[in-house]
């Protein structure tokens, strides 16, 4: 079945995939050019800064100052990256929290009849009522979840 469907859908997606690959290759070339230009600009700036600092103090001290400047820049970059990753993690957790609560509630509802049936084998009527009540609660939860999603 899948052998029949993949070529069928592949014909629809082939042009989009080729265009996407072309676009991605072009972006990679552009970003590589930008990265090379930034590297050479930073190298040129370092050389010029080194000569400027060397005119004020000895070459060893100038190299130390330049190294401290780059360490400071790297430290600031690491702090910015950490802040960015923390924000992204908080956004992702806030997005997944309601979904995880629904999944937990659904799992608990699905497991409740089995637990009740195991615990009260002699009380079959209570087990049947528990299954019906759990089913009704699951239907209500799904109905309420769909209503909340359609409001958004």
- Structure annotation, total helices: 3
Give the CA-based shape: elongated
SSE string, helices as H and strands as E: HHH
> What is the averaged pLDDT score?
75
Largest sheet: none
SS class: mainly alpha
Helix share of residues?
over 70%
Distance between the termini: 38 Å
The portion of residues forming beta strands comes to under 5%
Overall strand count:
0
Question: Any low-confidence stretches, pLDDT <50, length ≥5?
Answer: none
Please give the radius of gyration in angstroms. 31 Å
Question: Can you lay out the helices and strands and say which pair or pack?
Answer:
Blueprint (H helix, E strand, L loop, with lengths): L1 H55 L2 H61 L4 H28 L1
How would you explain this protein's 3D organization?
The structure is a single chain. By secondary structure, the chain is mainly alpha-helical. It is 95% helix and 0% strand. Helix 1 runs antiparallel to helix 2 (59-119) and helix 2 packs across helix 3.
Keywords:
152 residues, mainly alpha, 3 helices
Task: Describe what is shown at a glance.
The chain is an all-alpha fold and 152 residues long. The chain has three helices and no strands. Helix 1 (2-56) runs antiparallel to helix 2 and helix 2 packs across helix 3.
